[in-house]
Amino acid sequence: MKSLFVALITLGFLSSAWAQDNNTLLDIQHQWSHINYQMTDNDKKVDAFKALATKVEAMVKADPNNADDYIWLGIIQASTAQAKGGLGALSFAKEAKKNLEHAIKINPNASEGSAYTTLGVLYHKVPGWPIGFGSDSKAKELLQKSIAINPKGLDNNFFYAEFLYDDGDYKEAKKYLEIAQQAAPRENRPVAEAGRRKDLNALLEKVNKKLQ
Q1: Rounded alpha-carbon distances, angstroms, from residue 20 to 57, 113, 179
Q2: Distance CA 43, CA 136 (A)
Q3: Residue 38 burial by Cβ neighbours in a 10 Å radius (0-12, 13-18, 19+)
Q4: Three-state secondary-structure class, residue 132
Q5: pTM of the full predicted structure?
Q6: For 124-132, which contacts have Cβ atoms below 8 Å and span 24 or more sequence positions?
Q7: Max CA pair span of the chain
Q8: By the 8 A CB rule, do 151 and 176 touch?
Q9: 157 phi and psi, to 5 degrees?
Q10: Alpha helices in 34-153 (DSSP H)
Q11: 130 cis-preceded (ω within 30 degrees of 0)
Q12: d(Cα 108, Cα 13) in Å, to the nearest integer?
């Protein structure tokens, strides 16, 4: 079951504008990048993500109408699910879902639609009923909403391409990967940027092999 959460390791949606406007969240983001990309022991990752989530929970309590804080809390909880794996991951995925849905209620356009992207990945990767809440039809709906909000984004185009690849629509997957390739680099996020580009190139290679 751990493999069902493999895509969640790359969740780290945060627009450049958001990061520039909120140094506290930018600091949280850098900590997330270190845990996610530079730590290798999953048990230590889980502990580190939990500690980071506690910091963001305090931010949420201090400013309960800040959609960006809820989005980031959801991202960290989704990443915890990936590191945890197995049935124990579902509780973190469900908490992430709850916080992301709350962020959408506050401001659906916050962080350039990142809540929709993260939710879409969760719905695509989490098992369906009766184990979890997964649904590919819901995943597609959410990912398309994210694309509508931010048509040229790196993260949302990448994850929609991944969804299309898993669905066997390789031609469309390549189209969205090529859009993602053209996204402006996020210079204030070097670790996360490098990780996303690496994932993008790996998926594009797989897509091209399928199209040959």
Answers
A1: 21, 17, 24
A2: 29
A3: exposed
A4: coil
A5: 0.87
A6: 124/7, 124/163, 124/166, 125/4, 125/5, 125/6, 125/7, 125/8, 126/4, 126/5, 126/90, 126/93, 127/1, 127/4, 127/90, 131/87, 131/90, 132/90, 132/93, 132/94
A7: 53
A8: no
A9: -70, -40
A10: 42-62, 67-84, 89-106, 114-125, 136-149
A11: yes
A12: 14
| Token pair in block for residue 70 | 């809820």
Rounded to whole angstroms, how far apart are CA atoms 61 and 106? 15
Report residue 17 as tokens.
């504008």
Which pair of tokens denotes residue 10?
């790359």
Per-residue pLDDT of the chain (212 residues; tens, 9 = 90+): 434 444 444 454 443 333 334 448 989 998 998 898 889 999 999 999 999 999 999 999 999 999 999 999 999 999 999 899 888 899 999 999 999 999 999 999 999 999 999 999 999 999 999 999 999 999 999 999 999 999 999 999 999 999 999 999 999 999 999 999 999 998 888 988 998 999 999 999 999 999 99
Residues 6+ positions from 80 with CB-CB distance below 8 Å: 45, 46, 49, 50, 53, 89, 92
Name which of 143, 125, 135, 36 is nearest 89 in CA terms: 125
The residue to which tokens 């794996």 are assigned: 85
3-class secondary structure, 78: helix
Rounded CA-CA distance 100/15 in Å is 16
Contacts by 18-21, CB closer than 8 A, 24 or more apart: 18/68, 18/111, 18/112, 19/186, 19/188, 19/189, 20/188
